[in-house]
Amino acid sequence: MNGGPILTAAEMRAAEQAAFDAGVDDYALMETAGAAAAEIIWRAGHKRDALILCGPGNNGGDGYVIARILRDRGVPVRVAALGASRTLSGQRARAAWGGPIEDMMRAAPATQLVDALFGTGLTRGLDDAVAARLCVLAGAAAISHAVDVPSGVDSDSGAMLSAVPRFGTCIALGAYKPAHLLQPAAGRSGRLVLADIGIAVSSAVHRLCAPILSTPAADAHKYTRGLVAVVGGAMPGASLLASIAAAHSGAGSVRRFAIDRPIVGPHAVVNRRIEAPEGIGEALADERIDVVLVGPGLGRDADGRARLAAAMDAGHALVLDADALTLLGEEGARAIPAGAILTPHEGEFQRLFGDLPGSKIDRALAAARRSGAVMVYKGADSVIAAPDGRAAVASGASPWLSTAGTGDVLAGLCAGRLAVTGDPFRAACEAVWLHGEAARRAGPAFVADDLLGVLPAAIAARL
Ligand SMILES: NC(=O)C1=CN([C@@H]2O[C@H](COP(=O)(O)OP(=O)(O)OC[C@H]3O[C@@H](n4cnc5c(N)ncnc54)[C@H](O)[C@@H]3O)[C@@H](O)[C@H]2O)[C@@H](O)CC1
Ligand SMILES: [K+]
């Protein structure tokens, strides 16, 4: 499930330094980076006229290398700079370009725009006039590329420090950076391409990619494939959605303990009506239960609180979602059993953990460490984080997922995959991927129920 390491600016600099220490020449690295980017730009634009914007640092240096290579291939290239080059490699690349250099504020637009103003070294937002000019030039181009990161985004957090135009493509140099996957910065590029610049990079934080799933063993039976219990409450629909998602996730068996007995839904989900919260503990006292999911449709009243307490006291692996997270956030101190999966959205996360510092990745990792649970910190850029420091960031989620009930489906998938794998981090990664894939297959304007029907196909694609 490792779709490529994600490095902060400091980690990237350390990886580059390790390469320099091993004898790699720093200008040679800039030539490699520029050549890799130029190849991607060439494939998209061929001989269409291009304007390359070059900043004062090494990102600008990459820009001069790109300009020279494209010019040598016959592309009509113009270069516009934002002041002088301040790094030795940048100065060398600028000299090797050797052509005219326009003032960025006066340069006319071109069919292709390449933004090599600032990369991982950006320390503050661009001046308003510069940011506005960048937006005009990018908006006027038919094809636009951001080199490493779009200028104006904070590489480590994905925050926008000044106005950032939308680019057709962002070329990540050597490794992904948090800004490539975290919002709002991630939303400023239509396409993300990773360019290999030949240096070794590694991180415990990576981009989420498609999982490899397996079919049940030949001698499997329903209990060896995982038994999920879903504790419902006030709102029947939510726990039913979660239960059916769990049943379609590969788990062997799903039981739902709720106040209602639904008249719809698959007969394969065993529904037991338990009106009094006291009955939950007894229903969960079955050692064959692998995972308990509680939260979707639970309710936040005393009844919901009692059901949550019974679920948490039962001693099974836990998935906590929705109302369970709100109740926990209100109670504050109640210990979350180790090995649980928590699926908070932004508001629930804040209530549980307060204002943690750093990027969404940093916050998810801190919450995982603090609670001992795997975090599925949801959103357009879901971050899955484990207490041991591993994290995965999902990108490209369908915006149609922002509809009622999709969180219940995700929670059910987490529970089902946890029952199958017994590994909370792996289960959470698989669940988030399956959820995104189901949404992609469901197309536009789906309702959460539609995800259920496409889950088997999403799983089939990964067997
Ligand atoms: N370190 C290396 O050897 C390599 C770096 N590469 C490129 O270099 C980039 C990082 O280079 P740098 O560290 O030089 O950083 P940048 O090129 O992002 O720019 C840093 C420079 O801009 C100034 N600056 C920062 N924010 C500013 C603002 N808002 N307005 C005006 N000036 C501002 C800084 O004082 C510094 O001089 C990467 O993103 C990548 O594109 C690649 O060439 C691969 C090799
Ligand atoms: K850039």
Automatic annotation (TrEMBL):
Binding positions for (6S)-NADPHX per the UniProt entry: 58-62, 119-125, 148, 238, 297, 345, 408
EC number: 4.2.1.136, 5.1.99.6
Ligand binding (AMP): K378, G379, A380, D381, S382, G407
InterPro entries: Carbohydrate_kinase_pred_CS, CARKD, Nnr, Ribokinase-like, YjeF_N_dom, YjeF_N_dom_sf
Note on how the cofactor is bound: Binds 1 potassium ion per subunit.
One Pfam family recorded for the sequence: YjeF_N
Binding site for K(+): N59, D115, S151
NCBIfam families, alphabetized: yjeF_cterm (TIGR00196), yjeF_nterm (TIGR00197)
Protein name: Bifunctional NAD(P)H-hydrate repair enzyme
